[in-house]
Amino acid sequence: MSTPKNIALGVFIVVGLILFAMGLFWIGDRRQLFTRSLELNTEFSNISGLSRGAKVRVSGLDAGEVLDIEVPPNPGARFRIRFRASSEFQPILRMNSVASIQNDGLVGSKFLQVDAGTSGAAAVTDGATIPSKEPIEIADLLTQARDTVKNANDAITDIRGGIDDTVKAVLELNKETTEVIDSVGKTVDKFTTTGTSVMQSVNGIITNVREGKGTVGKLLNDDKLYEQLKSTLDSGQNMVSNFDSVSDDLKAISNDLKSREVGAKLDRLSANADSLTSEGLRAIRTLTGPTGGSGGLMAEVRETLTSANEAMSDFSEGTEALKRNFLFRGFFNRRGYFDLGDVTVAEYTDPKFLADRQRVTEWLDTTTLFSTVAGKGEQLSDDGRTKLDLAMASFLKYSKSDPLVIEAWAGNGPDAERILRGRERAIMVSDYLLKKFDLHPSSVGIMPMNAVGSSNGQVRDGISLVLFAPKSTKK
Fold first, then answer.
1. 39-43, 190-194, 241-245, 393-397: lowest mean pLDDT where?
2. Which stretches does DSSP call E strand in 319-356?
3. What DSSP string runs through 311-367?
4. Element (H, E) at 416
5. Per-residue DSSP letters for 132-149?
6. pLDDT interval class at 429 (50, 70, 90)
7. Burial (CB count within 10 angstroms: exposed 0-12, middle 13-18, buried 19+), residue 409
8. Cβ(205)–Cβ(228) under 8 Å?
9. How far apart are the first and last CA of the chain?
10. Are strands 110-114 and 55-58 parallel, antiparallel or unpaired?
11. φ and ψ at 14, to 5 degrees?
């Protein structure tokens, strides 16, 4: 081998060794392998996806890595985490420093967060075990919120049922009391009317006798008449005695009502209703806060649900960003994660649109698809619905997630009018197919084709159903 070649080979080897040493040094520096460190321990009941080699951060700054995770020997024990932290953080690490498992971003990896301790606590030593705080899972928060709302609904239902039962009891007692009073009143009225009638009759007889009228007045000295009159008076006396007896019965009924203490019972029932209402108000204040505003247990539930909504919104924004990234856009399109509502007519008519799929087309003429209703304009007819069902029958062998485009052609007329009329027709067909065949809304799109002109110069008036099926699918 010539000398220039030997020199080039030597230079190549030296440069390679230098690059290898630099890479090794860079990796070791990134993982802090060349810095002094101390090993610490902590324990968790749930490690929440933390793994060996995960980062360790002290007050948000990278400080080391997780060295080992020991599985507990029994269900009652906890996972033991052994981790390494740089010695430069030893002045702020104390025995009351708390370790917790955090998430790096919305969908990032897990890392171990260690908070700085307080000045009054003892400094940590190599091999020491510091306290920990269990990770919070969003599923546990949602379950707790659901249970809390269910318990609140059950409590309110019980309170409402108790109040309804109390009101019904009061109404029933009031009804019975009214019936008793009405019955007594009717009896008293009846007895009073009878007594008054008897007394009026007796007074009339005495008046006639004094005036000498009638048979009694004429035969006043007749003994037989006297005996008859005496008998009549005895009967009247018996009637008066009966009236007194009835009056005693009425007094006994009145005394019986008093002895039953109906009024006192009503007062106690009202007091119980007030007490039950107060308990219900206290329960509601516990849920809504002392002032009935935004405090209390309901505020905690709302705060939890708000945090969950924010997390889901962040996750959705991250997914939307991935769907539009040129590295992942093809993957999402192949999986069907795109919305035909975002596709313009120009993009749809581009030959490159879903070029990897075959078009399966069904044409339906407008004259048999729509009918004009007075005051409502064009409506999808019964015959049109039947023809749409028959046309969709040829698509049922494909997946519901395959893109389906409803092309609308609106015949003659001004361009703006045809575009609007075609769009209205496509919307009516889309609404019917989504509800009838349970399709995915993001996989169904409408295209007013008059927006890009007629097909090959021909005027078309109808609906074309175009399904983009995988080319591997056989008809």
1. 190-194
2. none
3. HHHHHHHHHHHHHHSTTTHHHHHHTT---GGG--HHHHHSTTTTTTEEEEEEEEEGG
4. helix 415-437
5. EEPPPPHHHHHHHHHHHH
6. very high
7. buried
8. no
9. 68
10. parallel
11. -65, -45
Rounded to whole angstroms, how far apart are CA atoms 216 and 195? Answer: 23
Per-residue tokens: 217: 């007045």
In this structure, are residues 56 and 85 in contact, taking their beta carbons and an 8 Å threshold? yes
Is residue 11 packed enough to be buried (19+ CB in 10 Å), middle (13-18) or exposed (0-12)?
A: exposed
- Mean of pLDDT values over 278-305: 58
pLDDT (0 to 100) of residue 67: 93
152 vs 296: CA distance, rounded Å: 12
Residue pair 56/111 in contact (Cβ under 8 Å)? The answer is yes
Euclidean distance between CA atoms 449 and 421, whole angstroms: 11
CA angle 207, 210, 215 (to 5 degrees): 90
How many CB atoms sit inside 10 A of residue 357's CB? Answer: 16
Q: Which of 13-22, 25-34, 304-313 has the highest mean pLDDT?
A: 13-22
Give the Å distances, CA to CA, from 459 to 20, 235, 364, 453: 71, 115, 14, 9
8 A C-beta contact, residue 404 and residue 444: yes
**What CATH number is given for 335-470 in this structure?**
3.30.1330.60
* CA angle (213, 218, 220) in 5-degree steps: 110
Mean pLDDT value across the chain? 76
Smallest CA-to-CA distance from 239 within 271, 200, 289 is with 200
| CA-closest candidate to residue 465, choices 398, 372, 373, 371 | 398
Segments making up each domain of the chain, as ranges: 31-135, 137-324, 335-470
* H-helix segments, 83-133: none
Rg (CA), the chain: 48
- In 3D, which of 471, 340, 463, 465 has the Cα closest to residue 396? 465
d(CA 411, CA 450) in angstroms, rounded, equals: 9
* Alpha helices, DSSP H, located in 350-414: 382-393
Packing angle, helices 296-324 and 138-211, rounded to 10:
140
Q: Which two tokens stand for residue 294?
A: 């935004």
Question: What's the pLDDT tens digit per position in 249-264?
Answer: 656 765 665 665 555 6
pTM given for the model:
0.34
Amino acid at 222: D
Report yes or no: 257 and 180 within 8 Å, Cβ to Cβ.
yes
Cβ(345)–Cβ(422) below 8 Å:
no
